[in-house]
Design brief:
Elements: H1 2-27, H2 30-40, H3 47-56, H4 63-71, E1 78-80, E2 86-88, E3 113-114, E4 119-120, H5 121-156, H6 161-175, H7 178-190, H8 212-242, H9 245-252, H10 257-269, H11 271-287, H12 289-294, H13 300-309, H14 313-341
Length: 348
Amino acid sequence: MGMFILRRVGVLILTSLCLTFVVFFLTNLYPNLEKLAKTQGNFRMTDEEVATYLNNNGYLQPVFAKYGQWLGVLPGYVIEGTDGTVRAKCAGPDEPLEEAPTFCGVLQGNWGYSTVFRDDAGGIIAEKLALTGKLMFWVMLLMVPSALVLGVLAGMREGSRTDRTLSTVAITTTATPEYVSGVIFIAVFASTTVGLKWFKGTATSAMDGANFENFFLPVLTIALYGMGYIARMTRASMAEVMTAQYVRTARLKGVKFRNIVLRHALRNALIAPFTVIMLQFPWLLNGVVIVETLFNYKGFGWVLVQAAGNNDIELLLGVSVVSVFVVLVTQLISDIGYVYLNPRISVS
């Protein structure tokens, strides 16, 4: 198992480097850099002025050199501008050049500077990631148990009326996009004109203090959409397990149906849904953009849209690193958990 985990970690690191380099290369294409220069200066800048700005800020270096500096494995640039001033990547605005550190990349905790929010990109990402993490926690707490119960109840008696009813509910929730269910929930439960006024139609106040009134609707909107996938996978897995030979043998021995389900079928039925559940974490991190926008909840997905829409290169790179890391780590946990749940799998 130790070698299995080490190999997976090695693949994770290599994949992270490849994916972050692809994102870094795309965001540092010259049209993006030109737009950044004009945004920071003025849109009437000439081509020579744009080139001067980009050169003075280290953007015209070879892409591998820039990637190494951003990552923190190569020394930061030291460039003498056309006006005679010396600029260094690792030196602060008022910091003497000789006192600046040699390396100042992501590995050293320097995530860059957001040109839109005018603040440290790492601090912005940490703040918004915490907000989305709070949303993810309550979504998973509602979505996973509900989906497992629906799937198990439907799969225990395949083809029954209960199975058909619960399967229809699961398909309906999956087929309804978040922007549709979210609008319906706001109109029915939060509208001040014709709605029931049970909840608030915005989750902005939940950023400071979440409660049932201002946080339940966005949680329910996301949970319903993801619930169907887990429930359908659980139902299919449970139905397959219930027809297995060892379950038939237990029935012939007179074991109670409840004990058959809880002691024999349930663990094996949860092997396949476990992978689907782990895949919900990357989806929740980046796929809640619509819900966060709809309910005005300024979390990680909202920052991703702002960074991409405003050509905020440093912030966009930081968001991409976190997204890649979460996806790969959840895949690693999924692989390890799958081995533990299914002893028949060999890790050699």
